[in-house]
Design a protein that fits this description.
Blueprint: E1 11-15, E2 22-27, H1 31-49, H2 53-69, H3 71-82, H4 86-111, E3 114-116, E4 123-130, E5 133-137, H5 145-156, E6 160-164, H6 170-182, E7 190-192, H7 197-205, E8 209-215, H8 218-230, E9 234-238, E10 244-247, H9 253-265, E11 277-281, H10 282-296, H11 317-332, E12 336-339, E13 354-357, H12 364-367, E14 374-380, H13 383-391, E15 395-396, E16 399-402, H14 406-413, E17 422-423, E18 438-439, E19 442-443, H15 448-454, E20 456-463
Helix pairs in contact: 2-4, 3-4, 4-5, 5-15, 9-10
Length: about 475
C-alpha cells in the first residue's frame, strides 16, 4: 500500500467511557513523519542490537523504577481512557513493572548462546539474534500491559519497537513512550505510529520493518497475517477467544462461583483470556447457576475512580451496541435471560451484568466472543460432554477446569484444544508462562522463554575441528 493512501488529516480520539467527555485528540502522523519514524527506529534498532546485554538490563531496571514512580498518573490515565476501575489500573502498572524486572533477571540467560554437543570435536552453538524493527498492533483493553507483554521480550532480545496502538488509548501510548525516554532508552527505539489501518499496512509492507505482532480481532489478524505473509515476514497473532469455564460435579462450588465472577466480569468483561462459556456438569448446574446469578447481581456499576465500583463502563459505545446485539440474538435463538441483558441508562457506556442460561452451540454467545459483562451458562450431561462442548469452538485461547481430582484434571487438560488450561483457577498471565492460542485464537507465544526467542533469528554456528 503506497503512502498516498495514508490519511494524515484524521485524528485518534480519546474519550472518557464513564461520562462520554472528550479527553484529547491526537493528529495522525503525516507520510513524512511516518518516514522519519521508520528511519529513526531502524537506526536505533541497529545501535540497540550492538548494545551489550548488561546495558540493556540496566535500562530495563530503570524502566521498572520509572513505571512505579509514575504509577498513580498512569493508572488515572488508563481509567480515564478505557474505564478500568482504578484499583485494576494500579495493578496493571505494577504488573508491567514486575514483568520488566523478571525479564531483566532472567532474560539474559534465556538469550545467551547455547552450546550443542556433537560428535567429532566440532564446536557448535545456537545464538538468538535480533531481527530489527518489530511493529506491534495493540488493543485498548490493557493499554499498558498488552504493550509491555509484547515490547518487553522483543526489546530485550535486541529489537526496536514500533507501537500502533488503539486510537482510543493514544494518551496511554504516548505516556508509555515517555516512560521509555525517562528510563534512558535510545531515542527512536520505542515509538508510536499514530495513524489509520492504511498507515499500519504501509509499515508492514515497508522493508525497514522486520516482523509484526498483533493482539486483536480475527478480522484484524487475518488482514495483518495476509500482509505479512505477502511480504514474507514473521507474524504473531493473539486473537481472543470464547474460553470455557468447566465445572465438574465434584468441584468446590463456592470457590468456583467466586472465581467465575472475577473471571467473567473483571475489566467489565473486556478480556481475551476470560471465562465466557460456563460449562456445568448437569448434577451441579442448578446450584452453581443460582449462586452465580446471586453474586453477579451484587456487582456495582459506577464511576471507575470510586473504590466501591466493581463494574466499570465498556470502552466504547459501539462495542456496547455490538454486545447488546449478541445478547438479543442469543435470546432470540432460545436462551433464557437470568440477569441483566440491557444497557444502563445515563451517561457512559455501562452495560448491566448479564447471565444467559440454556445456551447451546449455534447461538451467538456460544460461538462468538462476547467482549463485555455477559456470562453464558451451558449444561453438559457429564464430563465427556463438557470436554466436547469446550472444544466445539473455532477459538482456542484458554480455559478453566474445576474439580477435586487434580490428576484427572491434568488428563482432561491434554484433551482441551487451547493454548492454556487453568485447573481450579482462572486465566491469568505471568512473565514466566507463555501466552497464546490455537485455531482462530492465533499463533505464536508471548512471555516466558518462548516470548523472548519469538522474534529472534535462531542462528546455528558450527565450527569444524581443525
Amino acid at each position: 500500500m503506497s503512502q498516498a493512501n495514508i490519511n494524515p488529516a484524521a485524528n485518534a480520539v480519546s474519550r472518557n467511557p464513564a461520562n462520554g467527555e472528550l479527553i484529547a485528540t491526537y493528529a495522525f502522523q503525516t507520510p513524512a513523519e511516518v518516514e522519519r519514524l521508520l528511519d529513526n527506529n531502524a537506526a536505533a534498532s541497529s545501535l540497540w542490537r550492538a548494545t551489550p546485554m548488561v546495558q540493556r538490563v540496566a535500562a530495563y531496571r530503570r524502566l521498572a523504577a520509572v513505571l512505579r514512580q509514575n504509577s498513580e498518573d498512569l493508572a488515572a490515565l488508563i481509567t480515564a481512557e478505557m474505564g478500568k476501575t482504578i484499583g485494576a489500573a494500579r495493578a496493571e502498572v505494577e504488573k508491567c513493572a514486575a514483568t520488566i524486572e523478571w525479564l531483566a533477571d532472567n532474560g539474559p540467560a534465556v538469550l545467551a548462546d547455547e552450546p550443542v554437543a556433537v560428535d567429532g570435536g566440532d564446536q557448535v552453538h545456537v545464538s538468538y539474534l535480533p531481527l530489527g524493527s518489530i511493529l506491534a498492533v495493540m488493543p485498548w483493553n490493557f493499554p499498558l500491559w498488552q504493550v509491555i507483554r509484547a515490547a518487553g521480550p522483543v526489546m530485550l532480545s535486541g529489537n526496536g519497537f514500533i507501537l500502533k496502538h488503539a486510537p482510543n488509548v493514544m494518551g496511554s501510548a504516548y505516556a508509555l513512550q515517555r516512560m521509555y525516554e525517562l528510563a534512558g532508552f535510545p531515542a527512536g527505539l520505542f515509538v508510536n505510529l499514530n495513524g489509520d489501518n492504511a498507515t499500519a499496512a504501509h509499515a508492514i509492507e515497508d522493508p525497514r520493518v522486520a516482523a509484526v505482532t498483533l493482539t486483536g480481532s480475527v478480522r484484524a489478524g487475518a488482514a495483518v497475517a495476509a500482509l505479512a505473509g505477502k511480504a514474507l515476514k514473521k507474524s504473531l497473532l493473539e486473537l481472543g477467544g470464547v474460553d470455557a469455564f468447566i465445572v465438574l460435579a465434584d468441584a468446590n462450588l463456592d470457590l468456583a462461583v467466586q472465581a467465575g465472577i472475577e473471571a467473567r466480569f473483571q475489566n467489565a468483561g473486556q478480556v481475551c483470556l476470560a471465562a465466557k462459556r460456563f460449562i456445568l456438569e448437569k448434577s451441579i448446574a442448578a446450584e452453581f447457576t443460582r449462586k452465580f446469578v446471586a453474586a453477579a447481581s451484587e456487582l456495582q456499576a459506577g464511576d471507575p475512580l470510586d473504590p466501591a465500583t466493581t463494574l466499570g463502563p465498556m470502552a466504547r459505545s459501539d462495542l456496547r451496541d455490538e454486545l447488546h446485539d449478541q445478547v438479543q440474538r442469543t435470546l432470540a435463538a432460545g436462551a433464557t435471560l437470568l440477569l441483566g441483558g440491557h444497557k444502563i441508562d445515563g451517561p457512559g457506556n455501562f452495560y448491566a451484568p448479564t447471565v444467559l442460561a440454556d445456551v447451546k452451540p449455534g447461538m451467538a454467545s456460544f460461538d462468538e466472543e462476547t467482549f463485555g459483562p455477559v456470562a453464558s451458562i451451558v449444561v453438559a450431561e457429564d464430563a465427556e460432554h463438557a470436554i466436547e462442548l469446550a472444544n466445539t469452538s473455532e477459538y482456542g485461547l484458554g480455559g478453566s477446569l474445576w474439580t477435586a481430582d487434580v490428576a484427572r484434571a491434568q488428563r482432561i487438560a491434554r484433551r482441551l484444544e487451547t493454548g492454556g488450561v487453568f485447573i481450579n483457577g482462572f486465566a491469568a498471565s505471568n512473565a514466566r508462562i507463555p501466552v497464546g492460542g490455537v485455531k482462530k485464537s492465533g499463533y505464536g507465544r508471548e512471555l516466558s522463554h518462548f516470548g523472548l526467542r519469538e522474534f529472534t533469528n535462531v542462528q546455528a554456528v558450527w565450527a569444524k575441528a581443525v
